[in-house]
Amino acid sequence: xxxxxxxxxxxxxxxxxxxxxxxxxxLYWGVAGQGKSTLVEHLAERCPKDGYVVDLEYxxxxxxxxxxSADAARELLDELAxxxxxxxxxxxxxxxxxxxxxxxxxxxxxxxxxxxxxxxxARGGSSIVDSPxxxxxGNIKEPLAHLRALNRSKLVRALCDDLRKADLSGxxxxxxxxxxxxxxxxxxxxxxxxxxxxxxxxxxxxxxxFVPQLLRGVKGxxxxxxxxxxxxMKPGIRCRRRELRNWxxxxxxxxxxxxxxxxxxxxxxxxxxxxxxxxxxxMLSDTAxxxxxxxxxxxxxxRIACDRPAExxxxxxxxxxxxxxxxxxxxxxxxxxSVAKEAVVAVLAETPQDEQWFESLTxxxxxxxxxxxxxxxxxxxxxxxxxxxxxxxxSQEPLRLMEWHRRAAAYFSRLDDLxxxxxxxxxxxxxxxxxxxxxxxxxxNLECDYDSGLRVIELVTVHExxxxxxxxxxxLVSHALVLRSDVALYQGxxxxxxxxxxxxxxxxxxxxxxxxxxxxxxxLGLVSERRSELTRAKELLGEAFDLCLASGDTQNGANCQxxxxxxxxxxxxxxxxxxxxxxxxxxxxxxGDELGxxxxxxxxxTALRRVGRLRESRExxxxxxxxxxxxxxxxxVANALREEGGIYLREGRSRxxxxxxxxxxxxxxxxxxxLGEAACLAELSFLELTDGDADAAHGSLRKAASLxxxxxxxxxxxxxxxxxxxxxxxxxxxxxxxxHVTRASTVYRDLESxxxxxxxxxxxxxxxQRNGALPEASVSLARAVRAxxxxxxxxxxxxxxxxxxxxxxxxxxxxxxVRLARRALQxxxxxxxxxxxxxxxQALGIAELANGRTRDAMHMFSAGRTLFEELGIDHQAQExxxxxxxxxxxx
Length: 891
Prior knowledge:
- By secondary structure, the chain is mainly α.
- It is built from 42 helices and nine strands.
- The strands form three sheets. Strands 2-5-6-1-7 form a five-stranded parallel sheet, with helices on both faces. It has a two-stranded antiparallel ribbon with strand order 3-4.
- Strand 3 and strand 4 (about 125-135) form a beta hairpin.
- It is globular and about 115 Å long.
């Protein structure tokens, strides 16, 4: 198979099944650049009989629309009649006769003059004018549209009559780029009755009139349609549907290797940038053949993507199909995000030629009525059409475009529509209201309204704005990209967060913007922290803090210290963590930043939870929630409640844990935070498992996995698979649990998550131990110990040592069990976690008991019970007490 068809094996197999089955229509759709046209050409060659491709895009080698006709449907019918007639071997005589008659009818209507008697009546009823008036062809709109609608029906009937006796079994007609049917619709709205009778938009006519009639009238013929949008077929037509998706990394790498680009680092960079999009991957590969790949400008790549050859038909063909006196209105409207009559007038700064100009504009099918974010109806030009016209104006008439944006900004300023005003100001390079833009984003951020926040960021980062601002205010673009990266981080889209932050970092370094460089490094550090790449996180955050000191950026310096403290806590360096939290708290207090102060309490609370100081942790989290409630930051409150629920569960207080977790879950759903909701459901599954309801725990985890998948958080999906394995182990379904661990391990390997892979080794060892495969369990757990040690994860290493000690007990190797348990206890002491020390003492007691040292075991059990009681973990204290009693009885 040719390289451009990588990853399309499923589509090819489905096409072959389609040929064998009873379905009549096969629909392929996907965003620009997915290789739809290439796939169609490939499938046409695989037809058992001739396959014919009708490409609806006009190219140099095809007949262009005639100058006196805008009926794209007629041209489509002419081409189909030609190919279907060739297939039948008889031509299409009935169709040709009908077409000739249609041309005569239309020409007669266009050329003749109509004399009509017109009368104007004064208010009193007297006649002012009563004389014949001549109407030329330009006035005859409704009759022409009505005639064309009738002619289309006659032509389709004639075509079907020609083909009725033909057997077209095994023949497939491919219609490529079907979106042209919708974007090139002629105007079908007229004042008389609201529209010409039967004059459907071409896209609707094709799917709901032409295709059903053709399939009824032609025996054996099958259709394959491809375009950027799924064509809505009339009910009753048997059809298959498939959306084309991006390549997986293996196909992307194979394609690049076929082009001579085999460097692994380059392949990884391309996949991270293009996310497997075939068109973008191909363009970047072409660029890399000319430039040194390390110097490729990402914005240049985006510019190339916007100017793909597939888009070039718009300015040249699309605008030429619109009457000349309407073009200025369409082009002016394309500069607006929401099309309103008064706004277009303001942009043009003059009244259009006639009274019905706006009705004519909104009659085009590419001008769509949509519900805007403020719950008011608005007209919007289809993004493909608008983007192409905007790019055309920017390259051909930049001064005119700038002037139109300035007029639009003044218009929206009078309406107090700040978002629209800012968009047009930024389009013209005016950043005088940059502070208002930042205030809008902060307001959305505090409300956890991600959609609004991203919409505000887009005012700066959308292509047409960014091109202008990179020349006039590169710092603003860099800052906006950092904010977009930050939102992606909040939502758990870590690859997107890295992509945006690296773009921001490149701009900041090129323009010597130290503060923006520090912000970008901060976000990259946070992503590394989220991925448990703690050493790299510490380096990035440290570098960011040094830049903040150099530039006097106190706010971001405090943020760096806060997260350096969090990293130190995860590395079990609690002295360093406490110092960082103290510095951050002082800086936030100096700035009067209550959100920052709340964040310090929250991070401190989570660090205290890790070391088992549960009461102090709850107190810190209570202070955090109090700060968050005071400023209305619901996400912060939800996070604090979720942590609190986990602590209550650790203490064995199920009712309080349930109350906290359900309150947090309600808040996450209220603010539509799917990442937080998923994490809360995962925490809730522990509670349900503790209560003995494994089915409920499974249900919570399934919901969590679905939420993670909906935001593209592969790491979260893998983590949920591991938690599902834990539930299955509890239920005794060990083989199924191992399958979940294997799936998670594959994802962790693709994501290069060392922590995830170490956790998989730990879980695999536990499952093997339950299965009785003790030698295999011992090997897996030993590998887990090494993996956790390599990434400096003391908590994971402790758990793996404890589990390996249990395996040694079952194997009868008491000395090894004791050595392993003592190493786990040493790690717990190093971590300073009383909870970890108590659990390690319990494990060491079991090992000593197996080794025949009952008194030493009793000493460990007694010390562990004391710590559990001190921490308020009563259920584990009772469990150790029972072991102590059994040990005493054995003396």
